[in-house]
Amino acid sequence: MSSPEASSELKAGHPPAVKAGGMRITQHKVPSHDKHPEVKKVEGEEEEEEVQVTPSPPKQQLIISGVAVRGDADFPAEAVQAFHNKPIPSHDYRQVTKPNIIHQPRK
């Protein structure tokens, strides 16, 4: 087989697949958006103050027929839940497990 130094090299920009029990196991890694590329500063450049950006944008006021919406206060959870609950059926429909097969002779 190959030496351990050769297996640690990147292949096609990513580490090779891990083998366990003769089968390859892929390791899915979600790319994180937290990584920012480091900017190298040249000597003589002054450091600038960075502007802090808030993670969430300000929420917009929703106006319905001239009145601002108050979110959950307009529609209580009990009223919404009662509206969305389905009534219990009076007749229980059961699915047929086997298909109806009609034996007919061919012409």
From TrEMBL:
Residues 31-43 have a biased composition (Basic and acidic residues). Pfam families: DAP (PF15228). GO terms for biological process: apoptotic signaling pathway; cellular response to amino acid starvation; negative regulation of autophagy. Coiled coil: none annotated. One of its GO terms (molecular function) is death domain binding. InterPro entries: DAP1/DAPL1. Residues 1-59, 88-107 are annotated as: Disordered. This is Death-associated protein 1. It comes from Larinioides sclopetarius.
